[in-house]
Design goal:
Helix 10 (about 320-340) packs antiparallel against helix 12 (about 390-400). This protein has four domains: about 1-105, no CATH class; about 110-200, Beta-Lactamase, CATH 3.30.450.20; about 200-275; about 280-420, Heat Shock Protein 90. The chain has about 425 residues and is α+β, with helices and mostly antiparallel strands. The chain is built from twelve helices and twelve strands. Strands 2-1-5-4-3 form a five-stranded antiparallel sheet. A five-stranded mixed sheet has the order 7-9-10-12-11, covered by helices on one side. The chain is elongated, with a radius of gyration of 42 Å. Its EC number is 2.7.13.3. InterPro entries: HATPase_C_sf, HATPase_dom, His_kinase_dom, Sig_transdc_His_kin-like_C. Pfam families: HATPase_c. It catalyses: ATP + protein L-histidine = ADP + protein N-phospho-L-histidine.
């Protein structure tokens, strides 16, 4: 640019000099005409350089790739352009980092087992991760009304940003969930994020731990007391077995028999707190259920045993202890047989969350409301000779497998599901 200005000044001085001489007629006019042409070329050059810089800035604003560095004749413009290019590189690097963090955040919020729900004061949903959709049994929705249809009181409490929200709710088919809120401001807009956590497993674990403590205490206290009584009763019985007072002998026999039965009772329940740790291995579900069906389909079992698995791509696998899983299924089939079922169906399938479900359903008598509520509790039984450890033992084994058990009545009979993660 400097040399263009020098040429303009030189031409101007030359024109003045030629006009001062007077004897040259055309040359001064020709030189004078070069001056505006040079000014125009200088202006166009400057304008082109400015347009390049503006285009570069616009490419950054519009997130377009400018490509390689531009070359300018003007040192100042070249320096400005190089600075812009470096700024663009840092800007795009920052964008890449933000996109990577957003991707990571998206993976994390869908991978955690806690449901996350974010919304504004109007109830418009900004975030609803996969665990939340599974817990609330909804798809991709846009408003709180779609998550909690018909519960206007709950929605009003959620939209009251002045008061923190913390509540335990019972969701249909999901059990108890804990909901806690946290408020924040994003881009000047108040938002509330709600965590939704299924606490059924935690409550079940606490309940089972309490039962185990009780059973261990009973075992310790009762066995310590009953063992010497049983021993003494047996000793006394040998001393008085020829005694003519038959009522004394009969009383001692009753003491010995009841002591023995009580010790057997305690031994049965020791199994609930002394289950061996499962030896995990991959188990093919289809072949497992087929083996159970063959094993239980003997002539003396007067019921129809069927296997019904979802049609899919090949075998379904679970991670578990083969002997424990087989024993659980055998016990459930026996329970169905004792419930006067004429048809028992062994089924398997997968849920939307990836869990594998093994179910035993029958057309027997089903569960009463009381039995349905208390069936998994130790000591509870409806059988005259039952011990009350069958389903509670299965519940313990499923807990060791990281899974769960579900019991429900159907239109005809009942269905018990073993849910493996």
């Amino acid at each position: 640019m400097v040399y263009r200005v020098v040429f303009i000044i030189a031409n101007t001085l030359l024109a003045v000099f030629l006009f001062s001489r007077g004897h040259l007629l055309l040359t001064p006019y020709f030189v004078s005409l070069l001056i505006p042409l040079q000014v125009f070329l200088l202006y166009r050059k400057e304008q082109r350089e400015k347009d390049r810089i503006v285009a570069h800035i616009e490419s950054v604003v519009l997130d377009e790739n400018q490509g390689s560095r531009l070359t300018h004749g003007n040192r100042l413009y070249s320096k400005i352009d190089n600075l812009l290019y470096d700024l663009e590189e840092k800007y795009r690097e920052s964008l890449r980092e933000i996109e990577e963090k957003d991707s990571l955040l998206d993976v994390i919020q869908n991978h955690v087992n806690v449901g996350l729900l974010s919304f504004d004061r109007e109830g418009q949903i900004d975030l609803l991760n996969k665990p939340a959709r599974l817990l609330l049994s909804v798809g991709y929705v846009s408003h709180l009304w779609e998550c909690f249809p018909g519960d206007s009181e709950l929605i009003d409490d959620l939209l009251n940003f002045k008061t923190p929200f913390c509540r335990t709710l019972e969701l249909k088919d999901k059990g108890p969930v804990l909901m806690e809120s946290s408020d924040f401001i994003l881009n000047g807009q108040p938002l509330r994020i709600l965590s939704i956590q299924n606490i059924r497993r935690a409550l079940d674990d606490k309940e089972l731990d309490s039962w185990n403590v009780l059973i261990r205490s009973l075992n310790h206290e009762i066995m310590n007391s009953i063992t010497p009584i049983s021993s003494l009763a047996a000793s006394v019985l040998t001393l008085v077995e020829n005694d003519p007072r038959s009522d004394l002998v009969e009383a001692i026999e009753i003491i010995a028999r009841r002591s023995s039965n009580l010790m057997k009772f305690i031994d049965n329940y020791k199994s609930l707190s002394q289950i061996p740790s499962p030896r995990m291995e991959l188990i093919g579900v289809h072949s497992l259920l087929s083996r159970i069906a063959i094993l239980m389909s003997v002539p003396e079992n007067l019921f129809d045993l069927k296997v019904n698995c979802e049609e899919g791509e090949g075998e379904i696998f679970i991670n578990g202890d083969l002997s424990q899983v087989e024993q659980m299924l055998i016990n459930l089939v026996k329970n169905s047989m004792e419930a006067s079922a004429s048809t028992v169906v062994l089924s398997c399938g997968t849920r939307s969350d990836g869990a594998v479900v093994l179910s035993v359903s029958d057309n027997g008598s089903g569960f009463t409301d009381e039995s349905l509520e208390r069936a998994l509790l130790p000591f509870y039984t409806t059988k005259p000779e039952g011990s009350g450890i069958g389903l509670s033992l299965i519940r313990q084994i499923m807990r060791l497998h990281g899974g769960d058990i579900s019991i429900k009545n159907e239109e005809t009979g009942s269905c018990i599901e073993l849910i493996f993660p």
